[in-house]
Amino acid sequence: MSVIGDTIRYIRTWGTTGAVAPSGKALARRMVAGVDPRGALPVLELGPGNGVVTEALIARGVAPERIVAIEFNPDFAAQVRRRCPGVRVVEGDAYDLAATLRQATPGPFAAVVSSLPLLLRPPEQRKALVLDALARLTPGGSYIQFSYSPKPPVPESPGEYRLDGSGFILLNVPPARVWTYRPLD
Questions:
Q1: What predicted TM-score, i.e. pTM, was given to this entire model?
Q2: Which of 130, 132, 170 is nearest to 152 (CA)?
Q3: How far is it, in rounded angstroms, from Cα 65 to Cα 62?
Q4: 38-66 pLDDT per residue, tens
Q5: Domains in the chain, ordered, with CATH?
Q6: What angle do CA 145, 92, 125 make, to 5 degrees?
Q7: Are the C-beta atoms of residues 50 and 79 closer than 8 Å to each other?
Q8: How many other CB atoms sit within 10 Å of the CB of residue 51?
Q9: DSSP result, 148-181
Q10: Distances 89 to 35, 48, 148, 157, 170 between C-alpha atoms, Å
């Protein structure tokens, strides 16, 4: 599908995607930069949308068979299946990982890469999702999330996890930041 077609699809689903356009390639590359492509454990992708970040994971060297992508929207799920053969696409709710991952694998995961529109959810749901995802990571893994906000979608919580933020990725429309959550050692 064309860039214009993808943008129209996002505009129509803005209330659930939280975006007016797909993530740009610069943002996608930044999101997957910390994912080790050589591992054997699966990588969990939350909210792949049209597959831009999925394609960036594959371009980084992550084998498609290692990627488990959870997508709520059936049209986007079908698009990821077409664009990224070999990726295990699960249609379901990322905010209920226990039920949704029964169709795939509960983990552990090498990394979690999320394009979910967390800011559309209440703070307690956002934090619960991040904590659930962090609990499914192998040691050394991280939960990577982008947001258009200058503040993290789930604030730092000393004693529960570590948080690092990037500068704004200005080549994305609109500019976005990447937030990396890591379990405590």
A1: 0.88
A2: 130
A3: 8
A4: 999 999 999 999 999 999 999 999 999 99
A5: 3-183 (3.40.50.150)
A6: 50
A7: yes
A8: 27
A9: SSSS-SS---TTTEEEEE---BTTSSS-BEEEEE
A10: 19, 9, 25, 31, 30
